[in-house]
Specification:
- Among the domains are: about 20-90, Rossmann fold (3-Layer(aba) Sandwich); about 120-155.
- The protein has helices spanning about 20-25, 40, 45-55, 75-110, 120-130, 135-145, 150-155; strands at about 30-35, 60-65.
- Helices cover about 55% and strands about 5% of the residues.
- It is built from 7 helices and 2 strands.
- A two-stranded parallel ribbon has the order 1-2.
- It is mainly alpha-helical.
């Protein structure tokens, strides 16, 4: 039979994936879409079910190489896919919930989230002093050995009186 390979390079969280659309559009009756893993195909069980519905509407089926049970050409495969897809989405929601709780605890404990500041405490005062002396952002950036845009962002967030 004919084999066509579609390879997506966009991240899975993107809503519009060109190669996935091309693969689904290329399916005809009796065709099988084979994926390496289900988590590479869909982001949630709802997404998976929508994709499977589109595949079946074209008279085709879905098979996963990593998950042998994921085979929509059989009633058992469709049932297992539905149940395990729901469990995976439930697990993902628990992970997101725990992550949010951990982040909230860290913030409550006074931990700063995100990247470390590019302008340190000593540079902070020096940048404000130099700006008060009407030095340009470029001059300040060279003195502090940081980029001009870092100085501009810092001074925009810390205006002088």
């Amino acid at each position: 039979g004919c084999t066509t390979l579609f390879q997506e390079t966009a991240p899975g969280h993107r809503t519009h994936r060109v190669q996935l659309e091309n693969a689904l559009d290329a399916l005809g009756p009796g065709d099988t879409l084979i994926v390496t893993r289900l988590d590479r195909l869909a982001r949630s069980s709802r997404d998976l079910h929508n994709i499977v519905a589109r595949i079946e509407a074209r008279g085709a089926s879905l098979k996963s190489l990593a998950e042998q049970w994921a085979d929509t050409s059989t009633p058992q495969g469709r049932l297992i896919l539905t149940v395990l897809g729901g469990l995976a989405e439930f697990e993902r929601s628990l992970i997101l919930e725990r992550t949010a709780e951990g982040r909230a605890r860290a913030v409550a404990a006074g931990r700063r989230m995100g990247r470390k500041p590019l302008i340190t405490g000593a540079q902070h005062q020096e940048a404000l002093r130099l700006a008060a002396d009407n030095r340009t952002h470029l001059e300040i950036s060279r003195i502090l050995r940081v980029s001009r845009s870092t100085v501009s962002r810092f001074l925009a967030r810390n205006p002088q009186d």
